[in-house]
Amino acid sequence: xxxxxxxxxxxxxxxxxxxxxxxxxxxxxxxxxxxxxxxxxxxxxxxxxxxxxxxxxxxxxxxxxxxxxxxxxxxxxxxxxxxxxxxxxxxxxxxxxxxxxxxxxxxxxxxxxxxxxxxxxxxxxxxxxxxxxxxxxxxxxxxxxxxxxxxxxxxxxxxxxxxxxxxxxxxxxxxxxxxxxxxxxxxxxxxxxxxxxxxxxxxxxxxxxxxxxxxxxxxxxxxxxxxxxxxxxxxxxxxxxxxxxxxxxxxxxxxxxxxxxxxxxxxxxxxxxxxxxxxxxxxxxxxxxxxxxxxxxxxxxxxxxxxxxxxxxxxxxxxxxxxxxxxxxxxxxxxxxxxxxxxxxxxxxxxxxxxxxxxxxxxxxxxxxxxxxxxxxxxxxxxxxxxxxxxxxxxxxxxxxxxxxxxxxxxxxxxxxxxxxxxxxxxxxxxxxxxxxxxxxxxxxxxxxxxxxxxxxxxxxxxxxxxxxxxxxxxxxxxxxxxxxxxxxxxxxxxxxxxxxxxxxxxxxxxxxxxxxxxxxxxxxxxxxxxxxxxxxxxxxxxxxxxxxxxxxxxxxxxxxxxxxxxxxxxxxxxxxxxxxxxxxxxxxxxxxxxxxxxxxxxxxxxxxxxxxxxxxxxxxxxxxxxxxxxxxxxxxxxxxxxxxxxxxxxxxxxxxxxxxxxxxxxxxxxxxxxxxxxxxxxxxxxxxxxxxxxxxxxxxxxxxxxxxxxxxxxxxxxxxxxxxxxxxxxxxxxxxxxxxxxxxxxxxxxxxxxxxxxxxxxxxxxxxxxxxxxxxxxxxxxxxxxxxxxxxxxxxxxxxxxxxxxxxxxxxxxxxxxxxxxxxxxxxxxxxxxxxxxxxxxxxxxxxx
Length: 850
What we know:
CATH superfamily: TonB-dependent receptor, beta-barrel domain
CATH class: Mainly Beta
Distance between the termini: 54 Å
Radius of gyration: 28 Å
Largest sheet: 22 strands, antiparallel, barrel
């Protein structure tokens, strides 16, 4: 076995034999800072309380930006993705839980839970979809836009740390019930989804066994027929509880548990799949499209904390998240790949049906602790095992052409890929660990020395069964009943055949049924050192360095490279960081930060595998490589009151060999990923304003707003693409362009009214967000960039909490209901490629706490 692979295993074994103690979260540096400043904290504080969040931000040497559970509850925010967008300089990508920070998207950010990395729940992304993480089970979310060596080095925009709830207080048990409607979905007379999945998302469709497929019988058990569902009301049911026990004279065991199920229905109608050439002529455009969508989320979390005494603490967290996503789309329009004789659709219309079912199971386990071994020495360790299984079972696609004159439909062509069923499966095992020691030389100086390790293995396999239609069948079909043609009898008599990209199933099943696959191993070993020094009452500095060694290995065999291949890449990075805080007085801080980080490409950005969707197909590029990032921040903070803060930040980033999504030279929207130029520059300014506007008695009217201005620019070098890439190329129209995903302006404005009454409390919050235009994908030659147009959103929440334990809430989401629009920005014209509205959501929630 490779010696480096033993490093994390050794860490696990040696740590398990030590005396276990204290959990460490992100406020450890804050705790350390408090010790340096001579602050003594007694008793228990609520980490998610707004006043505590601001107090920690004020005292920390590092730049801390957090969104606490108390603030989220008032705003009716139920998931971590929406929670993060309440922080300055962040935006959420439409129709996903992926976050952009300071104009930098998924690959430039990282996600941790209690300081340890966690995997994505979707192979298309690097980071976990934060939309599946429920805010009821967390204390706060920390957005770390400034790098320090204790953070894993693969980040440039920010690291999002989800801090799970450790229970303090009196025992309780709480039940939450809720229901809501999406006005788009509820107004549909009939709501359809594919056959197979069930209401709770527990029915997992299995790929036909190779033995059954090889036997020559029709192997599919689920129907092609759309299934009508009951009235699409969203629902949610959750419970959480907390309790604690005294153990011995000093010990205390606290337990927090959370479990919930919720579902959501959506319906979209509009334009999808648009792609045009450089002369504004459509390559494809489905201008009469509809999508039905149904999501489920089943989550369970248990957090057990054992405080042995004031010097020793251990904590165990286990979190299981099961999600499903069904989408049934009916797309009508023009697609020259299937039928190119009627661009204006005067007689012929292409009909495409696509049913997709995604199932994700994520299991996160962490054991962590703190030990104060002596007055100057504290050791902290954190171990984790994560397992992910992500499936797309039984994705279905059908394509027919409707003839308006004869009022009949026929199959588009003999292209086997037009009608297909697709199955994939990704399994990842992720072992992570961190151990570090803090040594306090004096009240003014402290040294941190640590090691981090991660080993992740991934196994991805995909099989697509294409239906090759024989011309002898007459070519006519009922698009409302594909089972009338794709059935066991017609398969036996030879009206259609099953083939894969490797060959015909009947004639050579051994070869044809070998799946496309890639396997990978990622090993990251890192050591870091940090030194905090307080020069005087006003000036404190933190300087540190991290050494990362990253090994990436991959074996693949796909339709793009059927003879297979291997990748073996190794990178070593030295990552210095400096954080300086100058406390002008008790209310004002000045901060300066500078650092170096790096960004690695995603697994599916590297794997030579093509994943097809309606709007685009994504193609991995084995030649893409990491970027180096240089970051600098300057910030002023003013804390007028304990729950108020006003801040202004200027920041800059220089990225060497930036990675971007590009539309490559093809007849459709095929995107890939490449190092598109020598460098990229990002400059921006942020403001944050949390202030009470008016208060009287037990009532207050307050605001929380933030805004970010960004200027981004990256080099575009067509010759660099040719030099560095085997099969990804493009001829850029420009030599410079904005960064992919970066909006020039972002803003969040929240207005709240809080009223504490004799029998309870009332909170009313209006939350407005603005996201400016941003590039989704860079174009090539005469084809312009794909651009997501600006969006305005407005949400509102009213919450009653009574002293008897009863809680009521009324929530409205997406009240403005803006048009979501993506355009292709050609030289002479903006061409719409996707357009729809999400619909207004209204919901009512009831909770009772025993």
